[in-house]
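Render tRNA/rRNA methyltransferase SpoU type domain-containing protein in 3D.
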Amino acid sequence: MAQLKSWHKKLKSRLQHRFHYDQEAQQKNQYNPPNFSLAPHTMTNNYACIGLQNPKSPDNVGSVMRAAGCYGVNSVFYTGRRYDTAKPFYTDTQKTYESLPLVGVDDLESIVPFGCVPIAVDLIEGAKPLINYKHPPRAFYIFGPEDGTLGKDITRFCSDTIYVPTTGCMNLAATVNVILYDRMAKGDDYSYHHEQLNLKG
């Protein structure tokens, strides 16, 4: 158990160091945002990560991890303390957590992977239906808790907010599965979000 905690701590530190922008460089205007028009040539396509805002159910998180493994997600981040009190992966019989990073962080905005477009997934006013949505080649999908919704502190830094059109509510794990399947099914028909990110291309 001690070795597992030590490994998790080192992994968390390494990932946070990798994804944090250089604040000093930003203050000196030396940071240049990625040009998504060059994405097919300079960045790896089909790169996706998941952010979970204060998840509650270990069963749902286990299902999210299993979906992430099935659809080739690179890493999963989560905030909040509720999940830490109930960590057993009841549903993830494939033990995806042993090969796919699941990292607790203080906030999701600070660890948006480099070059990824942050996308909020929630049934809220102004959200775009998934049916006609074109996924970016590098995406960071952010999902709200099972018993709540994403706040403006999340949606304000997201380039898009999307939702799954249904007659009823789906749980967290089901929503993650649908989003990831839709991304896979639509293939490489990507959107590069020039206008949303004010990038030249």
